[in-house]
């Protein structure tokens, strides 16, 4: 027997002894085949986790890069006068890759051994049912949203903003690639909220499968990238789910610096009043459009830009005030 066959047999015996592969779905069989092929569950899980993150992140960014390059779509861009240049996108990509390999790769690789130690399944088959998966993913969304709401506000204070979060606010009109354009410390802080939910769930419930975590991560990446896309289409999710955040909500945060600190949902900003300027902006925008009924498209766009400039100017002042406070500290 060859070494390769012996390794495969060993992996099968150790991980899947007694498993009836004929009863598994095609995806479950492929899942088992991956672990058997790699032969080491720790390497197999770490490699799959990191590859999933990279493929989903950059794969989801590509459509937004294409959309930014096609003028037809700019009528749905929230700040149409600020389309990212290829140079900006490349500079952003370099910083994102740096954070991915220096911060996210170690965090992703260490997450699953830690989670396994408190009850998470990785190589095991069959997979959990959708009835089990859906409430778990919903819990992760709710937990991360609250964590992000609190941590994000902290990052807007004094030295935390000056030395960490300021990098993410380089672009007052964000674009898809900028979702994870941030200081490595910020990537670690906010990334903790993404991974802490599954770990806490494991500690108390002990019935979590990493497939559920993968579903959560994919949805979270889609949410983050779409929120930074800078586009509000009529079919965007916030028009279907009223409490969903989306690009319309987060774009204002980048434009005006303050307000809208949540990620996925709008409710904490609404409850805590940290969307007051955003609501004022939307109210003024609606009033302007009503008063200019019958005006040309160019006139409406000019009025909207003037209003955006007004709130952006106030945001610049607020950012300067935070910077001045940091110097005092």
UniProtKB/TrEMBL annotation:
Q: Which Pfam families does the record associate with it?
A: FA_hydroxylase
The UniProt keywords, alphabetically, are:
Membrane, Transmembrane, Transmembrane helix
Q: Report the domain of life of the source organism.
A: Eukaryota
* Biological processes annotated in GO: lipid biosynthetic process
**Single GO molecular function:** oxidoreductase activity
Task: Please state every residue range assigned to the domain named Fatty acid hydroxylase.
Answer: 138-274
Q: Which compartment or compartments is the protein found in?
A: Membrane
Keyword Membrane part of the UniProt annotation:
yes
- GO cellular component, as recorded: membrane
Q: What is its main location?
A: membrane
Q: Does the keyword Phosphoprotein apply?
A: no
| Stated name of the protein | Fatty acid hydroxylase domain-containing protein
Q: What is the lineage of its organism?
A: Eukaryota, Fungi, Dikarya, Basidiomycota, Agaricomycotina
């Amino acid at each position: 027997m060859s070494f390769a066959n012996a390794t495969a047999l060993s992996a099968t015996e150790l991980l899947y002894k007694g498993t009836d592969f004929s009863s598994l779905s095609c995806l479950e069989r492929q899942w088992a085949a991956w672990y058997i092929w790699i032969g080491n569950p720790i390497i197999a899980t770490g490699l799959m986790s990191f590859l999933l993150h990279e493929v989903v992140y950059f794969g989801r960014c590509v459509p937004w890069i294409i959309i930014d390059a096609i003028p037809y779509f700019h009528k749905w861009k929230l700040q149409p006068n600020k389309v990212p240049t290829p140079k900006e996108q490349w500079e952003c990509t370099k910083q994102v890759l740096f954070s991915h390999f220096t911060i996210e790769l170690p965090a992703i690789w260490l997450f699953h051994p830690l989670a396994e130690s408190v009850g998470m399944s990785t190589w095991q088959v069959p997979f959990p049912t959708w009835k089990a998966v859906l409430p778990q993913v919903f819990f992760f969304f709710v937990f991360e949203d609250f964590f992000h709401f609190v941590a994000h506000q902290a990052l807007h204070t004094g030295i935390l903003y000056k030395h960490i979060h300021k990098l993410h606010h380089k672009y007052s009109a964000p674009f898809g690639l900028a979702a994870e354009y941030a200081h490595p410390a910020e990537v670690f802080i906010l990334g903790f909220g993404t991974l802490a939910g599954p770990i806490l769930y494991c500690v108390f419930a002990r019935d979590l499968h990493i497939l559920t975590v993968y579903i959560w991560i994919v949805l979270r990446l889609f949410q983050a990238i779409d929120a930074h896309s800078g586009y509000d289409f009529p079919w965007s999710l916030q028009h279907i789910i009223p409490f969903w955040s989306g690009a319309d909500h987060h774009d204002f945060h980048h434009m005006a610096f303050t307000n809208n600190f949540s990620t996925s949902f709008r409710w904490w900003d609404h409850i805590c009043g940290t969307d007051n300027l955003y609501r004022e902006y939307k109210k003024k925008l609606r009033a302007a459009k009503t008063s200019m009924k019958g005006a040309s498209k160019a006139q409406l766009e000019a009025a909207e830009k003037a209003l955006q400039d007004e709130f952006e100017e106030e945001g610049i002042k607020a950012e300067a005030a935070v910077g001045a406070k940091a110097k005092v500290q």
